[in-house]
Amino acid sequence: MRDSNKEFVNVVDASIDQLQDGFQDWINTVAANAPAGSDAFLSSFKTVYGSALQGFEQFRAASTEALAAAEKTAEQAIESVQGQIAQVQKAATPASCSRKAA
Q1: How many whole angstroms separate alpha carbon 82 and alpha carbon 84?
Q2: pLDDT tens across 63-88, in order?
Q3: Looking at the chain, which runs of residues are DSSP E strands?
Q4: 89, burial (CB in 10 Å: exposed 0-12, middle 13-18, buried 19+)
Q5: pLDDT class for 27, splitting at 50, 70, 90?
Q6: Is residue 100 exposed (0-12), middle (13-18) or buried (19+ Cβ within 10 Å)?
């Protein structure tokens, strides 16, 4: 599970990086080809772009935290089941020995 979580985080990171790079290239193209007098529009456009990038970063952080929490919960569940199995095996061992002796 841990490996699949790391793989998912890597895919999310790569996708976000790719989107950010694509947005940055697009912004640079728009800015380079903008008509004279469109500075106010470009400024507001870049502000919107900055907000979008923050959204991507927030998604990246939230997905990483969610996967870490899921991994921890799964590990705790596995440990609990393993503990219960060990208790059942321990309880069953003396009973099976006493039946063999009879």
Answers
A1: 5
A2: 888 888 888 898 899 999 998 998 88
A3: none
A4: exposed
A5: confident
A6: exposed
